[in-house]
Design brief:
single chain; 167 residues; alpha/beta; Rossmann fold; five-stranded parallel β-sheet; 5 strands; 51% helix
Length: 167
């Protein structure tokens, strides 16, 4: 069975960067669920199954469709906390789920430098993450990695991948 990944986490911690790197260097199909209203979901032909999984709380059809692509898939999505049930749905269907975490100030600085989106959106999302942290940690079952190193620099995707593989 080809193992696929779902990557979520704090904004600006490298989710999309890791997905692109895995596609380029490890043969994954990268699906950024937030890109252009689901254009990556459309390109891979899994948009309908994604929507059904979100509605039904069951991801069997989504996992089957992903398995049929004959390559591992890495999905990344900075989901609203109200969709936390979806992570468990993916786990039950056999998709490995990971959370990339970061200290708020480091991620906020990266978000600010990236630009284009009002910082209030970041702050609201981080408030939700912090408020639900114990539940997030429980659902992700300690499959959490840090997006920044001890010196406050964003970690390279190959470092993140190495840590994921080592666990």
């Amino acid at each position: 069975m080809i193992r696929s990944l779902f990557i979520a986490g704090v904004p600006c911690t490298g989710k999309t960067w890791l997905g692109r790197w895995l596609a380029e260097h490890e043969g994954f199909i990268h699906v950024d669920a937030e890109k252009d209203n689901g254009s990556d979901l459309d390109k891979t032909g899994i948009h309908n199954e994604w929507g059904l999984a979100l509605k039904s709380g069951r991801a069997d059809a989504l996992a089957e469709k992903i398995q049929g692509l004959m390559k591992p898939v890495v999905l990344n999505w900075g989901f609203p906390i109200s969709y936390l049930y979806f992570v468990r749905t993916l786990q039950v269907a056999g998709i490995d789920t990971w959370w990339i975490h970061a200290k708020r100030n480091l991620a906020r600085d990266a978000f600010s430098k990236r630009g284009g989106i009002d910082l209030r959106f970041f702050d609201r999302q981080m408030d939700e993450i912090e408020r639900h942290w114990l539940l997030l940690e429980l659902v992700f079952d300690h499959r959490t990695i840090q997006g920044f190193d001890d010196e406050g620099k964003q970690r390279q995707p190959e470092d993140l991948w190495q840590e994921i593989r080592s666990r």
